[in-house]
Amino acid sequence: MSSVVFAPDSLKGSISAADAAAALASGWASVRPDDDVVLRPMADGGEGTLDAFAAAVPGSQRMPVTVTGPDDASTDAAWLLLPPTPDAPAGTAVVELASTSGIELLGDRRLPWTAQTRGFGEAVAAALDHGVSRLVLGIGSSASTDGGVGLLTALGARFADADGRPVASGAEGLADIASIDLSQLRPVPAGGALVLSDVTHPLLGPGGAAAVFGPQKGLEPADIAAVDAGLARLAALLGGADPSTPGAGAAGGTGFALLAWGARLVPGSAEVAELIGLPHAVATASVVVTGEGSFDGQSAAGKAPAHVAALAAATGVRVALVAGRIAADADTSAFAASVSLTDLAGSAESALADPARWLRAAGEHLARSL
After folding, report:
1. In a 10 Å sphere around its CB, with 0-12 CB exposed, 13-18 middle and 19+ buried, how is residue 29 labelled?
2. In degrees, to the nearest 5, what angle opens at C-alpha 301 toward C-alphas 348 and 277?
3. How far from each other are the two terminal CA atoms of the chain, in whole angstroms?
4. Among 341, 246, 247, which residue's Cα sits nearest to residue 291?
5. Non-local CB neighbours of 318 within 8 Å, separated by 6+ positions
6. Domain boundary among 269, 297, 326
7. What CATH number has the domain bearing residue 190?
8. Of 248, 269, 290, the domain-final residue
9. Is 88 exposed, middle or buried (0-12, 13-18, 19+ CB in 10 A)?
10. pLDDT digit string (tens) for the chain, length 370 residues
């Protein structure tokens, strides 16, 4: 009997990491029912981070919360309470920006000037109200470029214009910030706040939040300089962190706001892997299967499949890749086998229409071929 670990990331906008792992395992088990299957769904701080922890940590509890979404609409979400540990005797809260202030909540809409991170901050505040010892914050999939002003506002900070009035939400309010009052800002919990991100971009400049990620959120090329200047104004007034720190530009500058608050930024995939016990699971496995939605030339830079492959390589375990699509520029040399759902289904449209079906088919294929 072999032990097979299934550790995919989510196929963004299609299926969660937990459901992807379950579908792959189901397909594998239909061919090799005697194998021991271990589900360790992965995440890098974006969509699916809560699901990854919930699937991997026994005794975790979803804590419902209603927050202000990126478009100011009331949004039902949840944060995850992990059981107490010696380092976090009152438990750890996992809070995900994607499900509270994420771009997926907008559907096909883009609100480049008004989208904001207040809902993420409200979920963090709810976890603090519960009395947790530690925070783990996933900040991928942001809808906004507000520099984390919404987040900090929900935690008690006040951002005012020259007349002392609260500035507008979102990127449009950045240029009007004249003063910042942090006297009521809630402190980081005793066990600290760990920020998960797969982004290493600084806050400002041509490699910063506005220039690199703003267009994905609807900013026009002519808007980028103005938003970058607004973020620079925020950084100068807020202080507390270096805007050139790798990851400060994550989530539209939310990374910088969290650094200024006192949180610590870490590579998302590596930290999630440690927290869910993936290194031990891989070390005792015969085969590991990982994956994501689109595996391309950028996937080696901090994405979950690359980290899983590195863990497997370090222990001499075979690793396979399953992806919604595998781009022509992708390097799959680290994998003993690779499967594209688009190729299996015959088209991207068919794969997206029923991802669980084709993930099961991929699991069957790998069980026969490995």
Report:
1. middle
2. 90
3. 14
4. 341
5. 286, 287, 288, 312, 336, 370
6. 269
7. 3.90.1510.10
8. 269
9. buried
10. 689 999 999 888 789 888 999 999 999 999 999 999 999 999 888 888 898 888 878 999 999 999 999 999 999 999 999 999 999 999 999 999 999 999 999 999 999 999 999 999 999 999 999 999 999 999 989 999 999 999 999 999 999 999 999 999 999 999 999 999 999 999 999 999 999 987 899 999 999 999 999 999 999 999 999 999 999 999 999 999 999 999 999 999 999 999 999 999 998 888 889 888 999 999 999 999 999 998 887 666 667 898 999 999 999 999 999 999 998 888 899 999 999 999 999 999 999 999 999 999 999 999 999 9
pTM for the model stands at 0.87
* Same domain flag for 205 and 82: yes
What is the span of the domain harbouring residue 38?
A: 3-42+277-369
Please choose, from the candidates 289, 345, 356, 348, the residue with its C-alpha nearest in 3D space to the C-alpha of residue 9.
289
Same domain, 34 and 82: no
| Helices (H), ranges, 134-222 | 149-154
| Phi-psi region at 277: left, alpha or beta (left = phi > 0; alpha = psi -120 to 50) | left
Sorted by sequence, the CB contacts under 8 Å of residue 111 that are 6+ apart come out as: 70, 71, 143, 144, 170, 217, 218
Helix, strand or coil, per DSSP, at residue 77? strand
Task: Label residue 48 left, alpha or beta by phi (over 0 means left) and psi (-120 to 50 means alpha).
Answer: left
Report the b/e string of 179-189 with b at 16+ CB within 10 A: ebeeeebbebb
Query: Are 52 and 308 contacting, i.e. CB atoms less than 8 angstroms apart?
Result: no
Could you tell me which residues are beta bridge partners of residue 93? 81, 135
Same domain, 316 and 290: yes
Same domain, 202 and 98: yes
